Amino acid sequence: MSRPSGTRTLLAGTACALALLALPATPRAQEALADQLAELRRVIEAQQATISRQQDMLDTLSGRINEVEAAAPVAAARAEADPVVTSGQERIQLAISGQVNRMINVANDGDDTKIYNLDNDNSSSRLRFVGTGQVTDELEVGTVIEVELESNASGKVSQDNEDTGSASFNDRKVELVFDHKRYGKVSLGQGDTASNGTAEVDLSGTTVIGYSSVADVAGGLRFFDDNADELSDVSVSDVFSNHDGLSRRDRIRYDTPSLAGFKLSADLISDQRWSSGLRWSGDFGSFKAAAAAGYSDPGDDSDYIVDGSASVLHVPTGLNLTVSSGTKESNEGDDPYNIYAKAGWIADLVSFGPTAFSVDYAYSENNIDEGDEGHSAGFQAVQNFSDYGTELYAGFRWYDYDAARANLDAETITVFTVGSRVKF
């Protein structure tokens, strides 16, 4: 082990002094000895001063390290106790979340091909504020405010209206929630009706780009009439509907507690309407499954809407199957209805998140005129980046419309889509 330079100098000086002491005690030798001792004393004092300064520096640095270590837990606790976003009420916790979902469609209507820059109506861009307060161990009260912020919504953009202008601002949910573990949940205000989503149960992992409401990805596009050599007045969303209950409304809704995976919901809606829904989810062996059914009184020229859906996932292989159907009673002509089926596969191909693939087919009938038929098929792929709440997706879909009216010959619409959804 090497010695510090100050120690080496001190040892050398000491050795020199001992050597001088061994010299004969002549006047010249004594004078030389005195000079060497004086020089040695000067070197020792200089080394002591240097060592003292270095010790002071070490003491200062050690003190600063102790201060940082002591302050770190306090700073962390303060950051946890004082979040950036806080509620105006001490006992209410506020959570802010949302998403942005943008995509590009390349669509051909049989006459022309165009590129559209869109917000994806499959799962629109939105902002959500949720406040929750724990009244007792069993009772929780809360509020939900959720708004939709869409610029160029895919359900509104068409061939002759490619830019719908400034972003639309729509209220999706404005509700109060009272949730009791034993007695169930009551929701008051605008929010999901009991029947909303009952035709849309889907475990494929690809709903961001394809699900039972096949029109959403390009609902505003109009079919080209080959007979008239111009765009018709019929859009994709006119031809296809999954008849999924009553969406979101101002209502009072009740949900029972879950029992063996089952949950029953019912609501009373403005304008004397109502709906109900039954949902189930569970695991059996290596399978995960979910299903739902809904019944609604729409309060218009029809008496009821009935719909349902089911999905099953084989967890080890990622293979899955989804089916959906719905019908609306019509006082004029045959009842419109829809049938939908999807087969999918979820795979762990990369380390940063699962990859999902699916193919689907939808058939809608009588949505405009009695005897109308709509056929749609699609392929979807979604790559998840799980740590960042991000999905990249791509899909291809075609829409075919067989019109009952003899003078309308609709061309097939094909749509290629790429996009991304980022949740926060």
UniProtKB/TrEMBL annotation:
Coiled-coil blocks: 30-71
Alphabetized UniProt keyword annotations: Coiled coil, Signal
Endpoints of the signal sequence: 1-29
Claim: Signal is one of the keywords in the record: yes
SUPFAM superfamilies in alphabetical order: Porins
Top-level taxon of origin: Bacteria
Protein name: Porin
Organism: Marinimicrococcus flavescens
